[in-house]
Design a protein that fits this description.
CATH topology of one domain in chain A: Rossmann fold
Number of strands of chain A: 13
Oligomer: homodimer
Radius of gyration of chain A: 19 Å
CATH superfamily of one domain in chain A: NAD(P)-binding Rossmann-like Domain
Strand order of the largest sheet of chain A: 3-2-1-4-5-6-11
Order of helices and strands of chain A: HEHEEHEHHEHEEHEEEHEEHEHHH
CATH class of one domain in chain A: Alpha Beta
Chain lengths: 330, 330
């Protein structure tokens, strides 16, 4: 796995580095002997959490800054080899109640980060965290990268624009960029404080706290899930490979599962909690997209990535993490 | 043509209303006895021009305001039946040198216009001017609405986001919106002051002024063109039809033509000017997309639209307009 040895001694910047995926990536990079700088603004209700760095605080550099601040970003990208660009507003519901903040973070900031790279460090490699939400309601399944992008909420539109700035800067300016379109990611260090960043962290919280998991409708909607270590591996592969430049790749889970089965599996794994079906709230139903799961064929073919952590194992690790560390996340 | 009689007595707001397409649309709406209010900020180098309203100044209301100003837009959408939303930054080159201004006008303003409609006038119907530039480099021709959107410049990304906000607001909030993805539009009242808003106005200017039309490369790139009266007709159909709600439609020309043939036709029609092939400038070549033309099958099937003005006739009218009115446009 030569791509892992590529990271020793390299300078890596991670935006959103104290959040869920960012912190798991950062810890892995430190283990690979990279020089890691994290950028995070610790916006309340977003994913940033000091506890995510537990045990690693002295082995990396934390820089508190907001990606909406172009001056800081101009300074921070200098001297970096790779930027893992994970900062984002990830709540679909929040994007509908406050579309401007979502636009500022997910769209305008991406443009200013890319401008910073273009002017201050055109040799940097940038790996962006996109989302399968960009596709909207599937026309066919599994979703591949050739599926039309027809987002159903403001967050999906803004993430789409943020991604495409990256591709335009690759094609027009030779800035080396890649976008990974993430599906539902789960694992340790995930925000579980509220339910606005996706269902899975919320399900896990409810089970671990021996509370009721509520599922909208009949719970038969299919989803795929990727364990965070697998997602981290995809970022590491994309960051190390020139072949990834200018490319977009779906990530995906091993097998789709419906929400009711997933909730039951979480309850069984935790040995706590319970599940109940409830009617759809109006606002949620409007932006729901039915069954959805992604094909990861392209990234498997081009970068050799596939999800390797089975769902049962990933849930086991995640639930154990919150049983032991829950106090820092509730 | 029942849709035309729908406009008598109705209150219509046109953003970008002093620009090329906006003013042609406004003049037509006045002729149809609509109550027309134009919003335009007359940004220098954009398309707004007082002369575009010649003969109509007293038959409509002009409101100078910038769509980036959310307060004005909140006030202006009130009491309107239809909003033709045409304000935009349309230069691809400018979007690369000043991506933030393009973002503010083409993306953020669209969001604030839609928020204004949602809160102040949820019954309004909104017709947005999208662009085939959203598709980027064609994978197949003609481009249909199912073609992937993979823009090649910042303008394309921002227009794409601006369009999708409209569709999201239709689907999530029931605001009635439609997007027309315009191809190369030409005709009287087009900006011909500089060459950053597309080639055709520039070609016409050069011919009418008996100057040299320069074409990059060998001039064999195919394009389609739509005469502005046909584009106006598409807006009028979309604005009058409930069937158009939540839909995106390509417009297209009658037949694709290559740039060299087009330039020669313009010179022949004008009886002045000349044509020369020159090498591609680097910056232009990077964002060129080769042959491109659109299918208008969907809007023909659903709204009965098709381009009816032949290119020779449209060019004749356009050239005559600039021969007579050029002093207001050079």
């Amino acid at each position: 796995m030569t791509y892992l040895s590529d990271y020793a001694g390299r300078s890596i910047l991670v935006t959103g580095g104290m959040g869920f995926i960012g912190s798991n990536l950062a810890r892995r990079l430190v283990d690979l002997d990279a020089h890691v700088t994290l950028v995070d603004s610790l916006i309340p209700d977003y994913g940033g959490n000091w506890h995510n760095l537990a045990g690693y605080q002295d082995r990396l550099r934390v820089n508190i800054a907001d990606v909406r601040d172009p001056y800081s970003m101009h300074a921070l990208v200098q001297g970096q080899d790779i930027l893992f660009n994970l900062a984002g507003q990830v709540s679909h519901m929040d994007s509908m109640t406050d579309p401007y903040t979502d636009l500022e973070i997910n769209t305008r900031s991406q443009l200013s980060i890319l401008e910073a790279c273009r002017y201050e460090n055109p040799q940097i490699k940038v790996i962006y965290a996109g989302t399968r939400q960009q596709y909207g309601k599937p026309r066919y399944l599994p979703l591949d990268e050739d599926h039309l992008q027809a987002p159903t909420d403001v967050n999906g539109v803004n993430k789409l624009a943020g991604e495409w700035y990256h591709i335009v800067y690759n094609n027009a300016y030779g800035l080396r960029t890649t976008s990974l379109r993430l599906t539902n990611t789960y694992g340790p260090r995930q925000l579980v404080k509220h339910d606005r960043q996706g269902f899975i962290g919320w399900f896990i919280r409810k089970a671990v706290r021996n509370e009721e998991i509520q599922i909208y409708g009949d719970g038969t909607q299919l989803r795929d899930l990727t364990y965070v270590d697998d997602v981290v591996d995809a970022f590491l592969r994309a960051g190390a490979r020139e072949q990834a430049n200018g490319r977009v790749y779906n990530l995906g889970g091993q097998h789709p599962i419906n929400l009711l089965e997933l909730a039951n599996l979480i309850v069984a794994t935790a040995g706590r909690g319970r599940v109940r079906l409830i009617p759809w709230p109006d606002q949620r139903k409007k932006i729901d997209i039915g069954d959805v799961y992604s094909s990861y064929q392209r990234i498997q073919d081009e970068l050799g990535w596939q999800p390797v952590i089975p769902l049962a194992e990933g849930l086991h690790r995640t639930i154990n993490f919150y049983l032991q560390n829950g106090e820092h996340y509730w």
